[in-house]
Amino acid sequence: MKPSKANENCWLYGKHTCMSALRNKNRRCIELLVTENFYRECEKEIRQCADSKGIKAQLVENKIFNDILPKGVNHQGIALKVAPIFHSLNIEEVAESSGDSSTIVILDQITDTHNIGSILRTSACFNIDALVLPHHHSPSENASIAKAASGALDIVPLIYVTNIVKTMESLKKIGYWCYGFDCNAKENIDEIKNFGKKRVIIFGSEEKGMRRLVKESCDYLLKIPMSNVINSLNVSNAAAIGLYSIHIKAKITAN
Question: Which of 9-23, 33-47, 218-232 has the lowest mean pLDDT?
Fold first, then answer.
């Protein structure tokens, strides 16, 4: 179940995204471009981080960013060329090293890079041990995910697996319970008082939800209670609400 996505370098952009990558000891950084204004504002930090990676900051004009980055992005005066950070650990190794309490998030049929990045950011807020995507039909690590994650891509391991159902079954064997979010579920998240010490949380896309076999592999199906005016949420919003609720209940249970 080790990740096997294409191993292509990419340009990251934006202050939080690039600085987080520079601080990450596991991230290989190749080239750093900054505007003179950005360098003046952050010279000490830029030099320290760049030196630790064995690279030097290159001062460039804004037009250079227009040549290498997607049109119209807010680069904030910094761009960093990096190698993908695909963690060499597989998901079972992450789970086994996570300690007594652990939460892993799995995304099924979610392809929007902004949603994935936003969920990564939420995952970092709530100490999620890993974010798991299926190898097929999922975007590779890229600048759009990194920008939406605002540095979280270098905090929460993003792991690709061949088969989500087999991954769920493997995690169950080492003590995890699987909770899937489904707008048609009978049980509200509020009704679960104890999520256990080891949890896998699965989110499907807003349009399609989870695939049938993934849904059938869940120990529990849950929904977020809401008014009848709207019957679904954007998946990144649903993930934020769901993970916050689970995080709070896990803290109460631990005490």
Answer: 218-232
Q: Do domains 10-82 and 91-254 have the same CATH topology?
A: no
Burial class of residue 108 in the structure, from the number of CB atoms within 10 Å of its CB (0-12 exposed, 13-18 middle, 19+ buried): buried
Domain 10-82 has CATH 3.40.190.170: no
Which DSSP string corresponds to 82-128? E-----SS-HHHHHHTS-SSEEEEEEES---HHHHHHHHHHHHHTT-
Alpha helices in 193-233 (DSSP H): 212-216
Number of H helices, E strands in the chain: 9, 11
| Terminal alpha carbon distance of the chain | 35
Contacts (Cβ under 8 Å, ≥6 apart) of 198: 95, 98, 101, 102, 103, 171, 174, 175, 176, 177
Domain ranges (residues) in the chain: 10-82, 91-254
Structure tokens at 55: 């690279």
pTM of the model: 0.85
Locate all alpha helices (DSSP H) within 138-232, ordered by sequence: 143-149, 164-173, 212-216
Contact 90, 2 (CB under 8 A): yes
Residue 241 pLDDT more than 70? yes
Distance CA 49, CA 54 (A): 9
**Alpha-helical regions (H) of the chain:** 15-23, 36-53, 62-68, 91-96, 113-125, 143-149, 164-173, 212-216, 235-254
Task: Tell me the CATH architecture of domain 91-254.
Answer: 3-Layer(aba) Sandwich (3.40)
